[in-house]
Amino acid sequence: MPTAEEYFERGNTYFKQGQCQKAINEYDKALELDKNKVFLWYNKGVALFELREYNNSLECYRQALELNPKLAKLWNNKGATYSELGLHEAAIECYQKAIQINPKDDLALYNIGVSYERLGDTETAIGCYQKTVEVNPGDEDTWLFLGWAYGRLGYFYQEIECYETVLMLNPDHKRAKRDLQIATNNTPFVF
User: Fold this and answer.
1) Exposure letters 102-120 (e unless 16+ CB within 10 A, then b)
2) Both ends of the chain: CA-CA distance in Å?
3) Residue 92 burial class via C-beta count within 10 angstroms: exposed 0-12, middle 13-18, buried 19 and up
4) In 10 A of CB 44, how many CB atoms?
5) Domain spans in the chain, listed from the N-terminal domain onward
6) What is the pLDDT of residues 127-186, one digit of tens each?
């Protein structure tokens, strides 16, 4: 009979092949043998998330966090799951827990910004994006989102600077090229 570790590895193989349901089946077999493995619960939660079974995914993350509440990526994934359910306040709480564990968790900082934007709080989102690029100045996506946020608030010069930064990082970034052109055309001239 296979061990929990062997079922876990099979599940990981299926997951890498994009066969999430088969991966879940293997993780379940492993969990029958050992319910105390954080990454069994974590990986099952990720596979369920991919299948958009968000409530089941949350339950897996809850189980994993009971075993180890100090894994920032667990809090990040739980937050992303809440976000998919439209529960942005709950998502923010999870991302904040990830940042308490790892203050330089740029993914959690970025995700908090996205959640605040979805709640309509663009000013707070900008602060989160700024912290993200302080931690990871090479993050093209955050610079792009920061530019969009500035643009929504009418801070056109800051918006343009963000798109220019994206293009310094990646001169072929099509979205940044397009948005830079639009922002440049819409920015009032100051003499």
Assistant:
1) beebbbbbbbbbbbbbeee
2) 78
3) buried
4) 29
5) 1-68
6) 999 999 999 999 999 999 999 999 999 999 999 999 999 999 999 999 999 999 999 887
Is 1-68 in CATH node 1.25.40.10?
yes
Q: Lowest-confidence range among 23-37, 80-94, 131-145, 173-187?
A: 173-187
Whole-angstrom CA distances from 163 to 49, 95, 111, 171, 181 are: 32, 26, 20, 10, 9
In this predicted structure, the answer to whether residue 190 has a pLDDT above a threshold of 50 is no
* pLDDT of res. 188: 66
